[in-house]
Design brief:
single chain; alpha/beta; 6-stranded mixed beta sheet; 11 helices; 12 strands
């Protein structure tokens, strides 16, 4: 273990959010650091409000920090504070990855969409997201990232279902004109009371909402795939209901792990070992089983 302990030359990164104590990100990144025997540290910061978050970013510009992962409620603010913004972050309206260069400039990216699509690739490889409509439940920040990811993946239609129709329509407006060049794609809005019509002929449904009633899956085709972004618990009531209906499911843990991989590379200049069973370790840490 001695050769894996950090030194004064360690690269330092962290997850920032409020609350942040529940985050699995420190476990993932520090496990990769130990596996690769890298001189690095990954911590967690919990600024009390947006003013504290802004002061943290100002400090990181000059203190040698490699970068930050950003979670709720600071993702949109992270985008606004950056000096340069990658297209993926701009499209989804938020940033979950900030890196700092030697001159103090802040660069914003989003790896959420990458993690979402990779989760489908790993757990539902037969699901062709280009074959039909994809439904996103909720209209918050996580939903916006999911819409951007599904459009990038080639979904011909993304249907946003939300309790308040006006919020779903706001997302539709935000994505006008962002369809892939030369490809006909549409984004539409539905109220929660109209969820059966939204589910009709959908190839996938992604739950990006917190709380709310559990919808019935009777209107979904038998070949549809259902995902829940939550990973605590791993098998949510949403996924249990989908499995009882006989549908393929994707959990939120793989999304978390896969969105963390490009962040790790940005922070530490190394790629996590693909043979290292990080999911198995995470499941054990969470007290979960497959």
């Amino acid at each position: 273990m001695i050769d894996t302990l950090p030194t004064g030359a360690a690269r330092v990164a962290a997850i920032v959010g409020q609350p942040v104590r529940h985050s699995l990100s420190p476990f993932l990144h520090n496990a990769w650091l130990r596996d690769l025997k890298l001189d690095g540290v990954y911590a967690a910061f919990g600024p009390k409000d947006e003013h504290a978050f802004e002061r943290l970013i100002l400090s990181c510009r000059s203190n040698g920090m490699s970068g930050l992962n950003v979670t709720a409620p600071f993702k949109e603010q992270a985008l606004a504070l950056a000096d340069t913004v990658a297209d993926g972050a701009r499209n989804c309206g938020s940033a979950n990855l900030l890196t700092f260069d030697a001159d103090g400039y802040v660069h914003a990216q989003s790896t959420d969409g990458y993690g979402l699509i990779r989760a489908f690739d790993l757990q539902a490889p037969a699901c062709d997201l280009r074959a039909g409509p994809v439904v996103i439940m909720g209209a918050g920040g996580a939903s916006r990232a999911a819409v951007a990811a599904m459009l990038d993946a080639g979904a011909p239609e993304v249907r946003i279902v939300n309790r308040t129709l006006a919020r779903a329509e706001d997302l539709v407006f935000a994505f006008q004109g962002q369809a892939a060049q030369g490809v006909h794609q549409v984004v539409t809005a539905f109220e929660l009371t109209d969820v059966d019509r939204a589910f009709s002929d959908a190839v996938a449904v992604v739950n990006a909402a917190s709380g709310g009633p559990l919808p019935l899956f009777d209107a979904l085709p038998d070949h549809a795939t259902v995902m829940d972004m939550t990973y605590r618990p791993l098998k949510t009531n949403w996924l249990k209901a989908a499995e009882e209906r006989g549908l393929k499911t994707v959990d939120g843990l793989n999304m978390l792990i896969e969105q963390a991989r490009p962040s790790f590379e940005a922070f530490y200049g190394a790629t996590p070992n693909p043979a290292f069973d990080i999911r198995g370790l995470a499941l054990a840490f969470l007290g979960e089983t497959e």
